């Protein structure tokens, strides 16, 4: 269960991350879900609503007491959104305070960052969000880096093929989402081809497709 989304439309109406500010409510929700499902059940949360309401240990202990199989912690408050730096010290503190697996999240943009988080926090796993949407190779790069201390960068051809395959996959799902598919592909394209030959032309092509499909 994701208590960690900072979007105003969710936290602002008292749901998801907003619930984490009301631990008695969470204490009723988690056991009910645990009882209702037979699959592994975990939750993700942030460090608190703001710096004055840090709830890391309370949420971690509550999750453990309710029988969850693990927790994920993003090292920022809701107030921070994605600004500032993730507080990895609080992830380390959570790891020391519970006996269930702890997955760290926040500011992991490279294989080096991933290893640093493991070392700094002692966490059992690392969750990667934004970096994966702009560099889908990061997971294989992390495996390479842990195994050998080095990793390969994708070639220009691999980047182009990834964007093409991703866009075609989106289009194959439904003709109704073609405009959405182009917008999603465009967001990836903006970041994945930056600094590479013909990147500008590729971005223009995706933008043109967006215009044609939404006319």
Automatic annotation (TrEMBL):
<dbReference type="GO" id="GO:0102265">
    <property type="term" value="F:tRNA-dihydrouridine47 synthase activity"/>
</dbReference>
<dbReference type="InterPro" id="IPR013785">
    <property type="entry name" value="Aldolase_TIM"/>
</dbReference>
<dbReference type="InterPro" id="IPR035587">
    <property type="entry name" value="DUS-like_FMN-bd"/>
</dbReference>
<dbReference type="GO" id="GO:0003723">
    <property type="term" value="F:RNA binding"/>
</dbReference>
<feature type="domain" description="DUS-like FMN-binding">
    <location>
        <begin position="1"/>
        <end position="177"/>
    </location>
</feature>
<dbReference type="Pfam" id="PF01207">
    <property type="entry name" value="Dus"/>
</dbReference>
<comment type="similarity">
    <text>Belongs to the Dus family. Dus3 subfamily.</text>
</comment>
<protein>
    <recommendedName>
        <fullName>tRNA-dihydrouridine(47) synthase [NAD(P)(+)]</fullName>
        <ecNumber>1.3.1.89</ecNumber>
    </recommendedName>
</protein>
